[in-house]
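Recap quiz, item 2
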Amino acid sequence: MGARPLLNRRLAGLGTTIFAEMSALAAATGSINLGQGFPDTDGPREIAEAAAEAVLTGRGNQYPPGPGIPGLRTAIAEHQQRFYGLAYDPDSEVLVTAGATEAIAAALLALLEPGDEVIAFEPFYDSYAACIAMAGAVRVPLTLRQPSFRPDLDELRSLITPRTRLLLINTPHNPTGTVLTPAELAAIAELAVEHDLLVITDEVYEHLVFATGHHPIAGLPGMRERTVAISSAGKTFSFTGWKVGWVTASAPLVSAVRTAKQYLTYVSAGPFQYAVAEALHLPDGYFDALRADLLRKRDLLADGLSAAGFQVFSPEGTYFITTDITPLGEKDGLEFCRSLPERCGVVAIPNVVFYDNTEAGRSLVRFTFCKRDEVLREAVERLGRL
Ligand SMILES: *Cc1c(COP(=O)(O)O)cnc(C)c1O
């Protein structure tokens, strides 16, 4: 092959995701993996049985309908009504996707022209940067800075230009755990309306909010027709491998996103769609218990990290804790995370990989607490030896 690089210019620099690198390191060193955010216990037994039953009774084993099976689309619409009082038409305003990841990709590919600017909170979930790049658009970071990790709304206003097309928000926010308040959401919504911007909102941690409650921006004045709301079953039901996600939005937005989605996977996860429809109908007790359990785990890990000398930013939502390693006499999170498995048998994620302004994230390190208590206790003990 000639001198031309194989990887195209849009994807240059994206490399391998940090999760692949760190999970491989965890496996190679036998370390406790508090890097990638997946639970080490599966979701409800009866939901797993519903998936098995669907396979065995031949439901969803062949291509399901493009927008998702009707029962799941209805369950998603009912979920939005039950928890947030938002009404969506299951036929025209709901789209089932291959996880939230495909929904994000399809939405960005469908809604952006090359050169459009997308303002996204930084640190950002890694697929945002990749998908904005694949769409040929330009990402404009709004940096969430420690110790509060709250968005500076004046700065947000100052970042909007005539080329801004879209705001990409994530609440509860991975990796900082920030949950946007109703006042912050209202201010963001006002800017979106004033500048006629679209909003994509990633709400995959909607049920992992400890005290404040989750508030969808789609419910605010002027927002319904400009918001693409994205969520998925992975985090809420502890089945991250099933990859069942969804979009709720106005019919024209769903139609645009579906146009891209149908040429990405077309459809996916047939039998799991039946099981997730059941999961969305679980009683409130399920969601309350999930939250209470994770709150306890948050405090277990946060206390342990503090005792080990980390500066801990306790999250309002998600199952991640961001820490600063400066008090340990360390400066560089990437170096720290690469050496941590050897030093004490624990794997974490350096937040710097989620930043364009790398200076703002250099000394930050993320740990997940969606693991069994004994695993968290063992991790804390190991980290205490640092
Ligand atoms: C895990 C995660 C996703 C991906 O969700 P899937 O349903 O597994 O595709 C998207 N956004 C954020 C912020 C996440 O943490």
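The longest strand covers residues 164-170.
Residues 284-307 form the longest helix (24 residues).
End of item.
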